[in-house]
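[step 3/7] fold_predict: job queued, chain A
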Amino acid sequence: MAITNDILPLKGNMEDLLRFGVQNGMIDISSIQEKIEMKRREEILSKHPYKIWQGTDGKWRTYLPDKEKGRVLKKISKKEDLLDIIVSFYKLQEEVEKPKTFRDAYFTWRKSHDLSLSNNSIQHYNTDYKRYFQGSDFESIPITKINSEIVSSFMITEVKDKSLCKKACKTLFGYIKNTILSARINHLITGNPVEFLEAKQYYKFCTEKPRSIEETVISDDTWKMLNAKIEEDKQKNPAYLPGYAVQFAMLTGCRVGEISALRWIDITKDYIIINKSEKYDRIRKEYYIDKTKNGKERIFPISKEIRKLLDDIKRVSEKGGFLSEWIFSDKEGRIHSQVISSCIKNKCGQLGIEKVGIHACRRTVNSKMRCNGVSSIVAASLLGHTEQVNDQYYTFDVTSIKEKADIVSLINSQIGNSCEQ
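[step 4/7] structure written:
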């Protein structure tokens, strides 16, 4: 068939032309690959420094380099098989001697580090690698060529381009630091290019989006609207347990996974034992019951409101015929944390208000306690985290303007009395 101009690409780079040739049957790609392999084979054999000969016994012989002995004799019946051995040997040598990149060093570190991680953590690490390193020039740099200037340049560029917050910046630097440490342990490098670098050096390039009070805690008005909506829906469908679970979160500040994992045997006369949490394996795509986030057991006192809610749950569960070992279950079995999380957002949507999550209930319960004079020690103990975490992430001013006005009036009256004296 004659090749005319109307079927040829008018313009294009070599990649376009090759693709066109393959798609139109003009080029046999497998034949090209075979010729490339043959050429590579001939090149390797031409550089083999030792003689290849056939002995009196009919077998073919040659020497191969050896680090300990200098060289070792290879003997085999067929010449072609001996040539295959020679080619395979040098290809393997090339692979071993090829400079290790940051990517190679990173996954060498991960190979041992992943043994101590959960599937969710492994998945998180994989996602972060794609986000920060995959496709970048940095991942392809030989690990021996990486210095402090290269690391700093990469850090600044990533932090700026991806608008990273301080926490993400610290995480990114941690990956690089751990990879460098692993490379030193495995004798890939001798120096330490991050020895005089710290994550905080790059904080000034970070983007911090301050969260408003509405994003962190639930206002009194929203709190009342949500509770009223759930109560209204309970009248229509009393067997819908996720609504009760949301109210339980509003009363206790428990994590959503802890709520889903609660059993009736965890309920005593005076308090709730919290020692389990539902988690989701993002690799296996399944839910499972594990320890609480900090691995510790804690107790939460049962108020009259909590007692009434638990009694209501047991009553509707018995009436519906789905009472089980789990407090929050229905005909389908245990109610998963994702369903509970979706429930509160759905209620907000039905009310036409800004959506809040279950964790906002947790911050609100804590902030209410703190603003009512409860110490960080007690609040942290009830919610199951440290005092530092309580102060930094869970304590917000939730007092109303009237409450603030009363406080100011009290102080002013005390100051006035003091001045009069």
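[step 5/7] annotate
The chain has 17 helices and nine strands.
Confidence is low (pLDDT under 50) at residues 1-8.
exit 0
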